[in-house]
Every structure is written in structure tokens, then in C-alpha cells.
Write a structure and sequence with these properties.
The protein has a domain of 129 residues: Rossmann fold, CATH 3.40.50. It is built from 6 helices and 9 strands; from the N terminus they run αββααβαββββαβαβ. A hairpin with a 2-residue loop joins strand 1 and strand 2.
Length: 187
């Protein structure tokens, strides 16, 4: 009698499935918060975001307020890395910060972004976020990481909506899904 072998499903495929299962359009707005509310889906997404970067020597994960805090902190734990927060104007930081202003986002808002001076030369930083449409905030974080003297490794996203020329300026970009796979927000 032949034994049946199970083939493990790659973490990226499990994460992708979890995201697509939980994602909904709500009144024309993307609802990714559902992923965080479902423990198995959240765990799968975190694993899927971390997996492509396991061998990249990541010392720190950087996350932008607010969903980037949730995802980035969790991915940092999975990678055995530190976490560095990037805050928008108005949020408090208890020590000196590096600052830059991002180009306007999809709503036309140019956010001031601030990061504590935690990264050092020799550190390797990964930016983790839920969604990148124009890449303006990601590009600003790349500048902040550069100001610190650390090396930017790349960007790990739940949803990639970047135009090809923008994606090319950000180096290595990994994503669980591309925005076009999520369907029509007005349907």
C-alpha cells in the first residue's frame, strides 16, 4: 500500500489566500482591518510578509503609522529583528527624530514623517506596510533610512498598487497581492 505524502503549502500562498478571503470593499473603501481581527488570517499574512526576507539579513523592520505598526511589529518578531516606528505629524516621540515630507498621497495629502534615530550604519531595514498606491510615503521612509546611515533592503506589502516606474525606484518589492486582484471597489 502506497503512503500518501502531503506537500506543504508555501507561506506566501497561505497568506495570499487568507488576505483574499478576508478582504472586502466597504462603500468604495478597502477594508483590510478584517485580516487583523481573524487570528489565523493575521498569522498567515504576517508569515507571508516575512518569508521572502528571511535570508536578507534584516536587522530592523520599519512601519508607518498606523497599520504599518501592526504589521511591521509582528513581522519584526517573525524575523528576529527590532522595530522602528515612523509617525505622522502630531504623534509624540520621546527623543530626537529624523524628518522628511512625503510627496502627496492618493488623497493629495503630503504627510510629514518622523522616525526616531534608532537605525545605525550597518543596519539593514525592511519597510512593511499594508498597501502602497503611489509609493510617496515609502519613498519618504527610504530617505529617512538613508539619513540614518542604514541600508534599505526593500518593501514588503499586503497589497501592491504601485506603477512600475515607482516600484523600480523602491528596489525589491514583495507583495501578497496586486490591487487589481481585489476586484472593483464600486461593484
Amino acid at each position: 500500500m502506497a503512503t500518501r505524502q502531503t506537500v506543504p503549502v508555501p507561506p506566501i500562498d497561505v497568506a495570499r489566500s487568507a488576505l483574499l478571503t478576508q478582504f472586502r470593499w466597504q462603500d468604495g473603501h478597502a477594508d483590510v482591518w478584517r485580516v487583523f481581527a481573524d487570528a489565523p488570517s493575521f498569522a498567515a499574512v504576517v508569515e507571508g510578509l516575512a518569508e521572502p526576507w528571511r535570508q536578507a539579513g534584516i536587522s530592523h523592520v520599519v512601519g508607518i503609522e498606523s497599520r504599518g505598526f501592526l504589521l511591521g511589529g509582528a513581522v519584526a518578531v517573525r524575523l528576529g529583528a527590532g522595530f522602528v516606528a515612523v509617525r505622522k505629524a502630531g504623534g509624540l516621540f520621546p527623543r530626537a527624530t529624523l524628518r522628511t515630507v512625503a510627496a502627496p498621497d492618493y488623497r493629495g495629502v503630503a504627510h510629514e514623517l518622523r522616525m526616531q534615530e534608532r537605525l545605525q550604519p550597518g543596519d539593514v531595514a525592511l519597510l512593511v506596510d499594508d498597501w502602497a498606491e503611489r509609493g510617496s510615503q515609502a519613498a519618504a521612509v527610504v530617505r529617512l533610512i538613508g539619513q540614518s546611515g542604514a541600508r534599505f533592503a526593500g518593501l514588503s506589502l499586503m497589497v501592491d498598487q504601485l506603477a512600475d516606474p515607482t516600484r523600480a525606484t523602491l528596489g525589491r518589492v514583495t507583495a501578497l497581492v496586486h490591487a487589481a486582484e481585489l476586484g472593483d471597489p464600486d461593484a
